[in-house]
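Q: Is it fine to ask for two folds in a single conversation?
A: Yes, each is treated on its own. Send the first.
Q: Here.
A: Result:
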Amino acid sequence: MKALWGGRFRKTMHPALQQFSYSLACDRLLFGAEIRVNRAYTKMLARGGWMSRAEAARVLRGLSALEASWDSEKISALAGTCEDIHSFIQGELEKKAGPAAKKIHTGRSRNDLVVTSTRLYLKDKVAATCAALSQVQSALVFLAAKAGKLIIPGMTHLRKAQPVLMAHHLLAYVEMLEEDRGRLLDALKRIDVLVLGSAALAGSSLPLDRKFLARELGFRTIAANSMAATSDRGFMAEIAACLSILWMHLSRMAEDFILWNSEPFNLIELDDAFATGSSLMPQKKNPDIFELIRGRSGTVFGVLVALLTVQKGLALCYNRDLQEDKPGLFEALSKTDLALGLLPHVLRSISFKPASAEALLADDTLFATDLLELLVRRGVSFSDAHTAIGKLVAYGLEKKKPLRSLALAEFRMFSSMFDAQVYGLFDPHASVTAKKTVGSTNPAMVRAQIGKWEKELKKRGQR
């Protein structure tokens, strides 16, 4: 297939270099965006008089015909014979529209063309990712409502700390994913910039109507510096960073579900449709979906590091190193699509095991903070109360007695402020209900949060 350059060369490219440098296998994903760019550019050229109306009509018909016949998988077979998606479209367009198609490259370079197409592509992908995130949030809210009044041991350092509602724990990830969504939406501001018209690095001597192009392609602003526009991939690194933080949260969430599914916790049951077995051990039912999420997070992190490293030390302007900007990021977006598409089904199918939660809560040290705060409410300084309860816990461990089994006289060995009301504190429901601070695990506050999220996510789905 004809290249977009070559007049200066007396030899054709060596086949080994073709295999090494051609990028159609990856940038074929830009086909749809590229067609949109070419349509807008054709109209702009016709408005400026660089292409007649008849020529523009032929080119636009050719673009529509090319779009209708597009087959991404078949194009992959041309990966070793066509330099990139730009060369492919140009060659095919000349077949369909004739000599008029040769004018479509007027005043532009692949340098500004590829960045424009990539920005258009990412605008669509970010919007789709945000919508998918909302679906995962909806599934988590559904699961939180399903958990109801179920109380589990909240942990720090992977050790039991205080009783919390399972719903409160699940809503923590709704909040984290909301921040991830906000980061992606904020990143759109840096993506939503028209680069086309910057040419290779210095702009064009042709008075191209960039305002028209921005309107046609839906870009909010126009790049102010042609050198930055064609050579900087900071906007791609930002998306990779947003995805990395998102996957960090997905990985943490996955780890919680893996722990809850394990025999020592036994808090949840995975649906058979979303678990796998062992090729040797017939009894196994494994949480592979969550393990794969945990594992793939590292791959996504690597994309961010690669993007930063590719750009480190690159002198302005364009360098072919920048061809390496897309493969990793496109793969990270693909993995994100798959994970976010699957998770709502998995989450909604999970069931809980209240008996296991009750067994895990049969540890009186979970209520140490409730004992401490009882003393504080009765006038004991926090520091003295903390010391007293620490000694009380040590005493119980030494005597090998649950705290609730201690006599009142034994409690009063550590503080005279204890009375018979102390025995009512060894109750998970009393513990969570006693919480007063906004954002706590108090059941009324958690119910309100579930209602708020249900309303917000329903509203998003209707937009």
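Q: Second one now.
A: Result:
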Amino acid sequence: MLTKLFTKLEGYYEEMVSIRRYLHQHPELSFQEYNTAKFIQSYYEKLNIEVKGNVGGNGVVAKVYGKKSGKTVALRADFDALPIQDEKDVPYKSLVPGVMHACGHDGHTATLLVLAKALNELSKDLEGTYVFIHQHAEEYAPGGAAPMIEDGCLEGVDVIFGTHLWSSEPTGTIQYRTGPIMAAADRFEIEIQGQGGHGAQPHKTKDAIVTASQLVLNLQQIVSRKVNPVEAAVVTVASFTAENAFNVIADKAKLVGTVRTFNEDIRKFIESEMERLIYGTCYSANSTYKYDFVRGYPPVINHERETEFLISCAKDVTEVKTIEETEPQMGGEDFAYYLQKVPGTFFYTGAKPVRDDAGYPHHHPKFDIDEKAMLIAAKTLGTAAVRIHKE
């Protein structure tokens, strides 16, 4: 069965590349992926595969039924892009100013579409049901996974698998991890209200920039001095805004950033400790503040049995040269919500481009992938989907 599947996937590889490049040229931002969703739904309709659109928003869910009874296995791919200008010099460069697929979601979508096509053609030899979850809005919390789950995308599902094309690792590499593999991803906004004035008369003001600068330094002590060193945590101030003329002392300053954790107790501690530090810093400066801590995705926690099963599946793919356990990543992923509902695992498929000028990280303006990694991802996911019925 796997030989038949692999042969079909290899035969459809050029189609996979074509789909990926089309999507790369026509990216859409989170919660705005209307045309992408239509493209996905139309692809399934042309193949006479059962499909439903507008699942939890712009999500699309398709199903392929085997002729024999068995488990219901779900495979997921995301399809939103990022607000980044594409700076690559390639024929499939984004045609949308300021928007690009800088995280490989176009590749995820192409992988899943072609895998669904191949499995559908082999349905008479398959067991169980195959659910293809095409998820919108992974990049921006609250994300698309939770509303899709609320809308029933996991109904009847016994197990779920997902992968992320990983540009930092060579093609032919599969990275896995049992337990936490990606962190909880929260964001915060802090607005400090001081009292502005003339740049030549600081003694008559409450300088919001000075207060905010002090706060940035104070926040760095949370992880370095108040979190157990054996625990992983990140507090990052990513934006500092206080625009004024050269001779005006700012009355307002805004800080925006992110908190990443794996441990829920530490997550709660950082949220409360931040406010304590904000209060103390602003109190000493006789200023006021607004603090908003927005909880994003929970940590991605892989299930042990399904992860071990995935490892065995990867060994069946000849293009896979390296299978290795990876360290937890501080990036976030709303695949976490699926794993809270059903057993499964999320893994990385190496996709580092072979071009010397293309080794850029995710979310970079020149990000790209080795498209051959899509075939490896399809074979690995397909193997898991087919073999799970024997477990």
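Q: Anything structural to flag on that second result?
A: Two points. The longest helix spans residues 264-284. The chain has two domains: 2-182+299-390, 184-297.
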